[in-house]
């Protein structure tokens, strides 16, 4: 279950289930409602004990139908339930209408007609007896436009009546107002501020892209995936059209940990050169720290040998700080060319602390001309900000670019401008589409850093590493963390990992090291935490 679906892909899977007879719409709706109940009580155990009041906010589509099922099931469990409908009950789709009517036999369905009047909420949400639960079952994954003004005002009024912490908030598939293909709020009038944050968002069958990308984690709270009985492999086998629709499905990073092992059947008594020799280029005096971080990380991740290539004036500075990492002099591109005559040097890392200059550009082009596997980070990217095509013309499939947002904007300003424009309708351009376009233009692997790191091959294959929810790693927001990541990628490439595999595995290890170390983390700690992470992973 490590796939991220678009809204269209999820609709295609559901339609294939209907067409094949695997499930009816009513059956899926019932399973969805039951799945939300189970997920809520598992994730929020205090809620299971409450059996108090619930407000269920139902929308005009099938997501609203799920809400009516939830209302009925909670009522059967002894909850006092109030149900609100945004839309005309006469225009509900048949399955949603059936569940609307089933609820109507139990309790009232209150229209949203004048929800924007705060006093109306005063009657529905008495301060002395507030609800324990508010369920947002308004739109789900299908929302493609900003919330209507009256609905937006109503939800904000509700939030003001019940400040966060006074009631559990649960969203069915998606918090209202969030584009689930991008994780971006469709809210140009409120600077991306949705009416309220959820405590839990329950997705069906698989996570959607918006749960992991952009602002999605901030608004979703926690996420749970409810199994609604869709046999995706069987559907793909039976429906050729579905196979095509799912061909570009995005994966969550989940590295093959066996590749990280040393020794065993593959390398009994292996020599250090069997694990490669990485070279990290350093800047001059006073600017060697970033490269030293990268070199240490390359060694810790398992490269057989690591050499730091530094200008002559910086040699003593580096020598005083390093022991296991070897040193060599590199005063410019000619020295690098001579160094690379040794074919055993099989992976390069350029950028950390290298400086933004013509000399850096020459070093990068020399490295690329050697056709070695190479990671370009930081200054190696910024040095080409004025002429990115001069870099792109020399990139190849063995190169990994690792830009953060600022570096991405400098190399791909047109893509960046479209990416950050406030979306007025969905699906909004996501970090995935932005990275795919950039990787295709550059002709190499691109690792677009962030909480939602996106790794893309030039052909379009995408893997997402999201450091959020239970894998949140806020301590990575520290100077030098990106330099360590670049070194990890170089070290893994030296070991023989394919560049994209090195990028995926390094992103995972990077977050795991931060999570393992925890509060107080600084960049130096990341490489030193790797042995514990590797042991915990069974390596």
Automatic annotation (TrEMBL):
Assembly behavior: Homotetramer.
EC number: 4.2.1.136, 5.1.99.6
Keyword list, A-Z: ATP-binding, Isomerase, Kinase, Lyase, Metal-binding, Multifunctional enzyme, NAD, NADP, Nucleotide-binding, Potassium, Transferase
PROSITE patterns noted in UniProt: YJEF_C_2, YJEF_C_3, YJEF_N
Protein's recorded name: Bifunctional NAD(P)H-hydrate repair enzyme
The record's free-text note on cofactor binding: Binds 1 potassium ion per subunit.
Pfam family, one: Carb_kinase
Binding site for AMP: 449-453, 482
Gene Ontology BP term (one): metabolite repair
GO molecular function terms noted in the UniProt entry: ADP-dependent NAD(P)H-hydrate dehydratase activity; ATP binding; kinase activity; metal ion binding; NAD(P)HX epimerase activity
Keyword NADP included in the entry's annotation: yes
Domain YjeF N-terminal: 10-236
Residues covered by the YjeF C-terminal domain: 255-537
Gene symbol of the encoding locus: nnrE
Catalytic activity: (6S)-NADPHX + ADP = AMP + phosphate + NADPH + H(+); (6S)-NADHX + ADP = AMP + phosphate + NADH + H(+); (6R)-NADHX = (6S)-NADHX; (6R)-NADPHX = (6S)-NADPHX
Cofactor(s) in the UniProt record: Mg(2+); K(+)
Xref: Gene3D superfamilies: 3.40.1190.20, YjeF N-terminal domain
Matching InterPro entries: Carbohydrate_kinase_pred_CS, CARKD, Nnr, Ribokinase-like, YjeF_N_dom, YjeF_N_dom_sf
Binding annotation for K(+): 63, 136, 176
Listed PANTHER family: ATP-DEPENDENT (S)-NAD(P)H-HYDRATE DEHYDRATASE, ATP-DEPENDENT (S)-NAD(P)H-HYDRATE DEHYDRATASE FAMILY MEMBER
Similarity-based family: Belongs to the NnrD/CARKD family. In the C-terminal section; belongs to the NnrD/CARKD family.
Positions bound to (6S)-NADPHX: 62-66, 140-146, 173, 290, 353, 404, 483
Function text: Catalyzes the epimerization of the S- and R-forms of NAD(P)HX, a damaged form of NAD(P)H that is a result of enzymatic or heat-dependent hydration. This is a prerequisite for the S-specific NAD(P)H-hydrate dehydratase to allow the repair of both epimers of NAD(P)HX. Bifunctional enzyme that catalyzes the epimerization of the S- and R-forms of NAD(P)HX and the dehydration of the S-form of NAD(P)HX at the expense of ADP, which is converted to AMP. This allows the repair of both epimers of NAD(P)HX, a damaged form of NAD(P)H that is a result of enzymatic or heat-dependent hydration.
